[in-house]
TrEMBL record:
Listed Pfam families: HemS
Name the UniProt record assigns to this protein: Hemin-degrading factor
The organism of origin for this protein: Flavobacterium arcticum
Span of domain Haemin-degrading HemS/ChuX: 32-160, 212-345
InterPro entries in the record: Heme_Transport_Util_sf, HemS/ChuX_dom
GO biological process: iron ion transport
Residues passing through the membrane, by range: none
Length: 345
């Protein structure tokens, strides 16, 4: 183990002794390193490096049976339990899992490192697969649950263990590219016309690229009418409490550069904990840091199935934190209950 790694390991051990409940992501922030660099100090002990064969590893995850999938950004954590079914890695741009429970959009060019972790906790050993980007930020984690097949996990780790088990980790900074043109340089009339004539919500991203607008700029320059309305962040709490009360099935999209994770279904239990507003259901948990929300918009997009309404939540950099929709599928109109709930806010 080299001196730098050894020092880092010692610093982390000291932090953990001081604060046993400190999460690794927060420890990494405090120590000024990435989470992957910190995790790598445990290689050979509680951590095993895996070969970065992401599509193959993820395809084999179904053998683990019911697991907990975790995808997060700085402001929102999305945890969903289920089995990884129907993998599709045929596209060079995005991989998919489309199941009732585990529903992911995977942007594999951003995936760089894979580890298997068996960490000691108060409740015994906690096993997981953890995936990181080039910058050492966590993209996706898969935790075993009491209903998982532990023998299949051990076999998967053995199958994909890398020859490289070094404790040193290299990372490269991945710059955030959000450069906004002046509104005067945008063909606003053309942009508004394109929005009004949308046929599918998935075309919105291509439309933004075509007209060279950022996401929040697009909402500011939306067509007249109720296409985009800025609202207070308290609307999120009212919406989630209302959905829980009426048992309305909703969709919750949370992501980062390398992955988007989606929950579809009703939510039951909502609660505050310090700055965080949470959904705490048996198979779905969401933790949203309300103090880091800069903008919230109600956004309406025309489609061939009628209008689709979203609640979109942004941080101060203009990055999407989380999006909420009513439960829907292509070919089926949006739930009237969802429209009514959003209109009531």
């Amino acid at each position: 183990m080299d001196t730098i790694t050894n020092t880092l390991k010692t610093q982390w051990d000291a932090l953990k002794a001081e604060n046993p409940h400190l999460r690794i992501r927060n420890a990494a922030d405090q120590l000024g390193v990435s989470e992957a660099e910190l995790l790598a100090t445990q290689v050979g002990d509680t951590v095993t490096r895996l070969r970065p064969e992401f599509a193959a590893i993820l395809t084999d995850v179904k053998e683990l049976e019911k697991v907990m999938a975790l995808t997060r950004n700085d402001e929102c954590v999305h945890e969903r339990k289920g089995t990884y079914l129907n993998p599709d890695f045929s596209s060079p741009h995005a991989g998919l899992f489309v199941g009732e429970d585990i529903d992911l959009r995977i942007f594999h060019t951003h995936w760089d490192k894979a580890f298997a972790v068996a960490e000691k906790s108060e409740r015994g050993e906690r096993k997981s697969l953890q995936f990181f980007g080039k910058d050492g930020l966590a993209i996706h984690k898969i935790y075993l649950t009491p209903d998982s097949n532990e023998a299949a996990f051990d076999a998967l780790v053995e199958k994909y263990t890398s020859d490289n088990q070094t404790t040193a980790e290299t990372t490269v900074a991945v710059p955030l590219k959000i450069e906004e043109k002046a509104d005067a340089d945008i063909d606003v009339a053309g942009f508004r016309e394109a929005w009004v004539n949308l046929k599918d919500t998935h075309d919105f991203f291509m439309m933004m690229r075509k007209f060279g607008v950022t996401r929040t700029q697009a909402l500011r320059l939306a067509p007249e009418g109720d296409y985009a309305q800025k609202v207070d962040k308290e609307v999120i709490v009212k919406m989630l409490e209302g959905a829980a009360e009426t048992k309305l099935p909703i969709m919750v999209f949370t992501g980062n550069r390398g992955n988007i994770q989606i929950h579809t279904g009703p939510i039951r239990k909502t609660m505050w904990h310090n700055d965080w507003f949470n959904v705490m259901d048996p198979d779905f948990n969401m933790h949203l840091d309300m103090s880091k929300i800069a903008q919230v918009w109600v956004v309406r997009k025309p489609t061939e199935d009628g209008t689709v309404t979203a609640l979109e939540v942004f941080n101060e950099m203009g990055e999407i934190i989380v999006q909420f929709f009513g439960k829907r599928k292509p070919g089926i109109p949006e739930l009237q209950g969802w429209r009514d709930l959003v209109a009531s806010l």
